[in-house]
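Standup notes
- DV: blocked on the single-chain target, sequence here:
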Amino acid sequence: SCTMKLQAAFIFLVGDADETTRAVVSTPSIELHAIGCRNYDEAVSVAKACVVDGVTAVELCAGFGNEGIARIQQAVGPDVAVGAVKFDFHPALGFRSGDRLF
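- DV (later): unblocked, structure below
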């Protein structure tokens, strides 16, 4: 049987991200694009671009609070699976949620 490779993205928040803050990890069954973004606005743009490129699953780092997760889901639409790692307060964001910062 012919199996399609899952195209997925992991978007993480980091204040000093730039266009080089990205990597692709590939196995026979998945191609995972890890992409660093400076803030929610950049993450929304990146998520939309990923979907145009065929991504059907997006996982968000724990820096995304509930509002940030909702923004990404709204941006990519109902046909893209959006999930999130959760910390109540993220250690790399000064123990705050991205919702308080962005």
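- Follow-up: The radius of gyration is 13 Å.
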